Task: structure prediction
Amino acid sequence: MSKRSRNAWIQLAVLALLGGAVILTLVLPQLSDHRTPDPPLELSVIIRESDSSLWGNARLGMEQAAAELRAETRFLVLSADNDGQEQEDLLRREYEGGAGALVVVPAEPEKLAQDLRELTGKCPVVALESALEGVEDTVFPDNRALGQALARALLEDWTGGAVLLLDTAPGSFGVRDRLEGAREVLEEAGVPVQRRAARAGGLPVVLDGLAREAGTDWIMAFEPAATQGAAAAKESRGLEQPLYGVGVTTDVAAWLERGTVTAVAVWSDYAAGYLAVESAVKAARGEKNKSEPLPFSVVRGEEIYDPDNEKLLFPVAS
Result:
């Protein structure tokens, strides 16, 4: 074969390779477009209350995380607040129904932990508000420190008289720790305290009687539902005791602005919801993710529209 013929064959081979490469670049994207994408992860969220509006900001964060991480969330509430048995039944039903991960706000953490032992390694669970044995991650602020900070805010205003501590969620470790943290600070400062058990939903009716029976001049609530119920009681019954609470719903933000609520301890519910779903999805996909305690602050009515506080109280999903 002559040199000229060999060069011609080489040129033809190069052209064939280039042509094949062009064809592959055109065909492969079309082939990949026809691959069936993995189905989104199914994730169930089970809270401990019957009123889902109390978790509105957290739900925004959950939905944002789910959209970014290809997950579908199912938000479930109890028919009666803090019904531990119903929550256990719901958790088991969701797991047996095929949920890929679970986020739970425990009504009775100690009892619920026993049920979770059967799910270890099968369905990852992330807890909000209270520590829970056997879960992949927990997302909440330092609850004892939060209660202490709220009590110190009350001490700045205190002019004498006893403080009523509302015990509205005895089964919740997180709410209990907030109350105990506040009690410690107040008693160390020599402030008399009175602790009374009540249902958060019943406070609009019973708070007046509780305050009079306990002889208290100040009121503290340690969960959003109780803060909302106590604020409603103050306005409907004309109670004059300053109220210090926890968490902010739309209603509580309005009461804070007009002085019905003196101060609230707050954290970003939006961030809590986002982090909980993110951690649950990652765990279901074999990735480890541990959250740090959420930062919190104590906000008074005159501080509600400070830029940093607005982000906490009025989050907007991007």
